[in-house]
């Protein structure tokens, strides 16, 4: 029995693959390498290069590898770009999830862990987000992830009386950082850590977008969670589903207190040894002061915890990025 990891050659997906392999759960990668990196796939793990939009390929892969379940990480993950490319975003994230579910039903596979996003909440009116906080996504990306959660919910209801009822959970998180393997690093041009790393490597000064927020140091506060912890939570969810244990429809993988952008910048200077004073730019429209999620439910069921300090988050990400350019 195996677990199919869609997007398993990506930054997050390849960490999930490694964690599954370490837990003895026999991962199989499906990735079209649109944003994944072939070298991120661990040696010895079966790799199916192709799109989740290819229903026949998905069903064939599920059958040939006797899949016990799917960890669905693949998707178009750029919230800002999704505003300019809504049709592409919906095709990848909504159609893709629907096709994965269709293939699962045809192949008799009934367990799925969905890699959702805290973007489903949009800009909440509360500073500490819980699972039932109102969902008001502010981008096609956030909307597509929320629709993905609805698809799982509705398919579970539709198959509840069948011999293979769908069992599922969705994991929501904000900013994933760091590295749990020195050969894997965040390649996104839109995330804070790689943006700062590239600036420092180029000898340029990183920028903070606004320092007049209603927070302790004036910069906005977010959850920053280590990719190794995110991967471990996906594995724990898969194990819980496979064991037939009760599971919530969704979990927030949050820190409970968050970090400010200035705290991240200070850690960057400490860890890299590059002394810099960040430039201060204007606020980005729509950026709230503080959004942080509690991880209490996930701690109860998925052994969720923050195992890395901010300096360790920076160090592991920096070392992996430097190794890539060595």
From TrEMBL:
It comes from Microbacterium hydrocarbonoxydans. PANTHER family: UDP-ARABINOSE 4-EPIMERASE 1, UDP-GLUCOSE 4-EPIMERASE. GO terms for biological process: galactose catabolic process via UDP-galactose, Leloir pathway. Its cofactor is NAD(+). Pfam families: Epimerase (PF01370). It comes from the Bacteria. Keywords: Carbohydrate metabolism, Isomerase, NAD. It is an enzyme of class 5 (isomerase). Residues 4-254 form the NAD-dependent epimerase/dehydratase domain. Pathway: Carbohydrate metabolism; galactose metabolism. Signal peptide: none annotated. Belongs to the NAD(P)-dependent epimerase/dehydratase family. The lineage of its organism: Bacteria, Bacillati, Actinomycetota, Actinomycetes, Micrococcales. This is UDP-glucose 4-epimerase. Its EC number is 5.1.3.2. It catalyses: UDP-alpha-D-glucose = UDP-alpha-D-galactose. GO terms for molecular function: UDP-glucose 4-epimerase activity.
